[in-house]
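Render this sequence as a predicted structure.
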Amino acid sequence: MASIAEIRRIYPSPIPWSDSDDDEMNGCYCVGGALVMFAELPLDEERFDLAFPAQQHIVMALQKINPDLPDDVALDLAGAIAYANDTGLIEKAWSLAEQGLAYSAEA
């Protein structure tokens, strides 16, 4: 299973959606986008939708990276990740993503 450190190394500079330029993506992405792109989901979406994905795509990415993550936990974390990122709390969003990747049913 991948670690947040590995994902952060590949995607080191997420930004809030409000700081992105819809016309000039120039490699912009959010924490959820980093998860979705890392997970290489087979989505037929525009680049912007992968970089700033909908909640259900973050859920899919979290569960692909950590198949032990239950639907309800993934949904809650995905919403919290998106909210934290969108309000500029990038480190909080990474911390929430790390919770999802570290989740274990035995814990």
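Summary. Residues 4-102 form one domain. The chain has one domain: 4-102.
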